[in-house]
Amino acid sequence: MTTDLSAPPRQGTTTAGRGKRPRPPFGVSAVSILAVLIALFSLVPLGYVAYMTVATGWDTAVALILRPRVGELLLNTLLLMAATIPLCLLLGVAGAWLVERTKLRGHRIWAVLLAAPLAIPAFVNSYAWVSAIPSLGGLGSGILISTLSYFPLVYIPAAATLSRLDPAIEQSSAALGLGAWRSFFRVVLPQLRIAMTGGALLVGLHLLAEYGAFAMIRFDTFTTAIMTQYRSTFNGAAGNMLASVLVFFCLLLLMAEVRSRGTARYARIGSGAQAKALRLPLHAYQVPAQLFLLALTALAFGLPLYYVLRWTAAGGAGAWTAAEFLPALLATFWYGLAGAAATTVVAFPMAYLAVRRPGWFSKTLELSNYVTSSMPGIVVALAFVTVSIRVVPGIYQTAGVLVAAYVLLFLPRALVNLRAGLAQAPKELDEAAQALGKPPLLAFIQVTLRLTAPAAAGGAALVFLAIANELTATLLLSPNGTRTLATEFWIKSSEIDYVGAAPYALLMILLSAPMTYLLFQQSKKVAGQ
Amino acid sequence: MTAPSTRRLPEPRVAPSVAATTNSHLQITDVTKNFGSQAVLKGVNLSVAKGGTTAIVGPSGSGKTTLLRLIAGFEHPDTGTISLNGTLVAGDGAWLPAHKRQIGYVAQDGALFPHLTVGQNVAFGLNPAKLDGGRRAVAARVAELLEMVSLDASMAKRRPHQLSGGQQQRVALARALAREPELMLLDEPFSALDAGLRVATRRAVAKVLAEHGVTTILVTHDQAEALSFADQVAVMRGGKLAQIGNPFVVYTRPADRATAEFLGDAVILDAWLEGSLATCSLGGIPVRRPPAQGRVQLMLRPEQIRIAEDGPIRGVVVDTDYFGPETTVRLKLNVPKEVAEHADHRYPGGGEIITIRHWNASIARPGMELCLRVVGEGVAFPVED
């Protein structure tokens, strides 16, 4: 009874007072209502698909789904995924491991180069490959092009996780008598599980949603088939049924990812300085490793860049001065700006709730956004076409509808950044400002908004650049006569005007470069959380 | 460690008077607060005199931070009222938001704005329009405020993350002082600092606040901090104030056993109380204001039990713990002769093990018999069943 009280237990003082009930500058209910409205709005595409499936009627739906054509698309899609996802995992993890965990010469440069293919939109990649080998077509080409386009989606999170992995884990494994290779398979690889399942999900969703890359090589997937149906019958039941099958696959992928993610904890436990990552000497494997990475980046990044530059050079100054060029650039700029601003504003209530009021409510809202943003652009676009024609005809083919579609497609990009930014602005700072005599709204603007601004700008930039490369939804929803860089490129390359299309491709790649870099940097920060 | 037993004890101020006295700066009356189904404050009454220093001390989850946030205006009370300078600011339909309450607030981690320099942080609440001389006057005022908290004016250009924890807390205090608040609210501002820095920072802060005559309320879970910092200590437990009084009173004359044990080490013995004399294993101990007669629990502070060669009580050393400046000694008490020989003793104890402290580590070895003497009075609590 002597010393127990002289050192009272550390305490967080009334968790109720601190954590549970912050008093936000404006009513929480208002934020909650806004967030619910946004979540409901984001469920429009799913609702559309569900409604269309019901409206079509069971017998018609079954008849439309169980036809040989659907079977063919199904086989194509499944084979594409079955081959591409494992290939992406293999290339992505191998690349990440070489860059982060071996004494690879020039690993800093390779780290960036392996992420670089992401700067090349898949449909531009397809265009370059068709330029190189005009006879490309079919499943094999689809696997080739999509693997080269999407393996960075696995590489980036895997590299981020590896670079932040506590080397003490490997040291413990070594102390328990495991060699380097066995340590990798039994200790390191399991830690990569979240990165790998997350990356695989992204690859899968991209494969389902991609239109341009597969249309260019005449490889049919659900998305290309829906587009064809839409072009011929505008809004037929057949197209809608294909869309519901596509949505079904997306949901299946999401669920598979949640299941395989598991409940294990991989974050670093405990505090204290983290030692530097261990790097394995490559010895005789140095040259093969360099050659492997050289070949990979040459095919995924070098080849498309080469052909885009070659066609651009072939066109000379004429292509840049064409009458369509400046309007397309300006349209892209304005749509990107409007979409980025709208997405950031819409994401704010969600991020605010997630950070300041975490709980089942904010989780549910986030989930609904997450599901929507996993929907292929073509489904979102179809939903908006239908809703705008049937429900509010006045807005069909207006800029607002396209911007709304962008918001739904790219909301998570803004959300992730805003959440991180808001986490840097705890409510205590807001309260400190109030205690210093600032009215709540002013305190909120001067402190919370100010501290969130850099992250919000980062998120907005990501959205802007994603919009600049968006093809599918833009093709369907853009107002008559409006063409963006992506749609202008698409029209030109569809007319086999490769020279005319090249400047647009080059500009898209240049715009994507900073986005890729941002994503790359961001992944290093969020890994392990 | 000298026992204050020979001094005359001031009367304990137990429940505060609800009626606001004319010089009371803050008056809290019957305040309750629930978070969902959880009652955090269950009827709190507190009066703080102008220029006074009050420490609200209590264990984790007792509601003390919630009380501070209600005073600051970051939360609304469910029932009850809060008045500042006789003006109702919360409850009974009144509401004055935080930014109009003329308060200073220093949070646990300082809550410095990370996007501003130290100088900009301190100047945040200043209104340049109200200062003659505009920007230069602001800079001068910032320098003055930094000096007030013993920081060099050159610190103004630094960023919060370039400061140590103690420096950050001083900047937070300077920032809060900038608007010359009448009431300063400190929410565990020293708890994040390490032991040495904590004492130094606490002293510096107390000095500045005392010099400016600012009414101060400190929330802390550290009873030593509360006792040393404040002239009024309010002990909070389970959403209620268990005792309010000056530090000396609440330490030496705690209102109940839980308060006694929260505020410091306590020796609790079963005793038999007749008149104002409690008989226990330590002999007959005088008790002030006996609460009941018959069986009671007697509380003594360890420093009241001295090792003395001519002491009337004997105990055998069970074991010792060496802490450097002091050693704690666990003793098994022998039943004193007068107790054992008492004809009709209804003395309930015997052979208890108590813990005392001594500066000399070599005085006690396990198995040794020591003589003890009790100084001062004990506090009796009714027996808890």
Count of DSSP strands of chain B: 21
Mean pLDDT of chain A comes to 82
- The run of helices and strands of chain B is EEEHEEEEHHHEHEHEEHHEEEEEEEHEEE
Largest inter-chain contact set: A-B, 38 and 60 residues
Class by SSE composition of chain B: alpha+beta
- Count of DSSP H/I helices of chain A: 25
Tell me the distance between the termini of chain A.
42 Å
Low-pLDDT runs of chain A: 1-26, 267-273
Give Rg of chain B in angstroms.
Answer: 25 Å
Widest sheet of chain B: strand order?
Answer: 7-8-9-3-10-11
Estimate the strand proportion of chain A.
under 5%
Structural class of chain A: mainly alpha
- The total of beta strands of chain A comes to 0
Shape of chain B: elongated
Element string of chain A (H = helix, E = strand): HHHHHHHHHHHHHHHHHHHHHHHHH
Described by strand count, sense and barrel closure, the largest sheet of chain B is:
6 strands, mixed
Strand content of chain B: 25-35%
- The number of helical runs of chain B is 9
Which sheet architecture does the biggest sheet of chain A show? Answer: none
- The radius of gyration over CA of chain A amounts to 25 Å
